[in-house]
Structure formats: C-alpha cells, structure tokens
Fold this protein.
Amino acid sequence: MTSHLSARSRLTLLYASLFTLGGTALVLITYLLVAHTLYDTTTTSIPADAQQEIEQCLKTAQTRGAGVPGKCAGLYASGVQAGARTALTHLLTYSLLSLAGVTLLAVVAGWVAAGRILRPVHRLTAAARAASEQDLSQRIALQGPRDELRELADTFDTMLERLDRAFTSQRQFIANASHELRTPLTVMRTAMDVVLAKPDPTREELVSMAADVRQAVDHSERLIEVLLVLARNDQARALTDPLDLAAVAEDALEGRTASDITTTTRLAEAPVTGDGVLLERLVANLLDNAERYNITGGTIAISTTSRAGTSVLRVVNTGTVVPADMVERLFLPFTRLGDRTGHDGFGLGLALVSSIAAVHGGTVNATAVPAGGLDITVRLPRRDNAVTPASPAT
C-alpha cells in the first residue's frame, strides 16, 4: 500500500515512525531501570539504627504515650521523602542516559533513511552534471512508485530528451547552412579562377564571370535573409497586431504571374493576432513552394476560413507524387523533394512556414495528394482565442 503513497506521505510516515519508536524505547528503558532501582531499594535490609527507632516508636505507641503518634508519623514522612528524592534522582539519571542512547540511534536511523530517500536526488545531480558536460544521452530512468521524486526524474528525462533533439537539430542545421553558404562561394571562386587563369581574358569572358558572380551573390543574399528570419523567429516576439488571414493572403497573391499555373482563391474572414510581415512571408512561401514544385498546366487552390476557435489557411497544389514518408521531412531545413539541384530553392521554405506558425502558437499539417502535389493546412488561434505563443526550437 505504501508504494502508492506520495514522497511527502512516506516521509511523514517515516518521521512519525522514528519518533514513535524512539519515544517507546525511551519510556521502556526508563521504566525498566526505575523499576529495577525500586526493587533493589525495597529488598535492601533496614539499617540497625533505623530498626531500633522504629521498634521504640512502636512500643511507645502501645503505651499510648502523649505525642508518640505524631513522632511516628513524622518519621514515616521523612522516610517517604528520602525515598522519593532517591527515586527522582535515579529517574533523572536514567532518563538522561536513555535520551542520549535513543538520540544516537535516531541519528543513525535518520542518516540511513535520508540516504535512501535522497538517492534519486543524487542521480538527478549526476545526470545534470553529465548534461553540463555536453553529454545529453544520459537518462535517469527512475523506477519505483510514481511520487514527486519519480515525477521530477521523468520531467528531467523529458527535458534532456528535448535538449538532445534540439542540439542535434541545431548542429545539423548549422552544418547544412555552412554547406549551402559555401556553394555560392565555390561558384564565384571557380568563375574567377577560370577567367583569371587566362593570360588575356576577353571582355565577354569578364562579363560572363561578373554575371556568374552576381548570380552567386544574389543566391547568398537570399539564403542569408531566410536564415536571419529563422533566427529571429527563435526569439520571443510581441505578436499583438489584429490581422485577417484573408487580407494577408490577398497581399501575398498580389503581383504573382505564374505561367501555365491556374490559381483559385476562396478567402473568407479568418481573424488572428500576430506579425503581418511574418504571416505574409508564410503565405508567400507556401505559394512559392506550390509554384516551384508544380507541373505545367497545374493548379493552386488557396483558401482561408475560421471555425471552432481556429483560423485556417489551406494551400493545395498539383505536382509530382510525394512519397508518404517524405511529407514530414519536407519541413526540415535544407530538405528538397528530389534532386538538390533540380530547383533554385534552398529547402528552407516549408521550414520557415513551420517556424512562423509555431511562433504564432499554430500548427502546420501536410498530406500528399494521391494524384500528385501537397495539401498543406496552417491552423492559428482566432483573435479572440489567441494566446502568447512559445518560442519554437529550430
């Protein structure tokens, strides 16, 4: 039954049990010692002088001498007081000795019990020390009753797991970003090395080299801009602007002239609270992704609606068939569908969509269209239900 008690209840029972056992031992030891002392006192022979006085008092009392009963009573009272003083002295001495012994036993028992109770705390400390040394793979995995200590250990394990995933994702993100940033630098270096290696490059060759360098610079600039947006999304933001997803979508659609792709809209009121620039970037990235991975003569359908306390943005596009196991991976940074060089994107569009939705307290869900393409739905809290979102982990 005690296995189902909380740590607080078990500690209370432990302290109460130790106190009760200590008190019982103290009372029992004191009683036995005092009883032994009283027994020895009553069985000791009476001294000769005391015996003579008692006999004389008894004889005098038989002759009914005046004042004798009073003397006998006084003698009796003096004996009682002397016996009481002796008993109290022994009681005090034995009580102090018993208290010292029981206190020593209580210290030993408390030390052992505290060590058993604090054992999970020591494991928590060891895990925290290991985590501080960049080893996030250790887990406490505390067994036993599900009490406060077990809950603390499980929470700590969950925190370590989240930190491990975040750091792993961050390291992978940095590695991918470094690779993506080195690619345009390599292109520029190659273009310049090829032209400068010639003893007398022509004007056309220099112009071609400049065009290649300019294209690589533009590529790097766009990539750095997206990375900066992702970095800003990881920080706490004050998203308090009243917005309408329908109006945001109209702004993102303005000026788009995708050739051979038909775009249909069904925009209903969808009030949210957030950052207008970021939400417009979210819609623009969804449209860019729908256009970039579409097919000739394909379609894009964008709609906004509001229901059940949630404002919904949905973008459906035609395109190539997306494997089911690839859908979730598309929201990871630097993940592209198919060949890395088949498109001019960075593989950050949907990752940025997920980051912006998370910083607004929303979610993104995607499913593969059986005939080809993606169906992406973004759900954000309605303006009257909007809450302060938590910062996401990239």
Remarks:
- Confidence is low (pLDDT under 50) at residues 42-46, 339-343, 386-394.
- The two ends are 45 Å apart (CA to CA).
- The first strand starts at residue 241 and ends at 244.
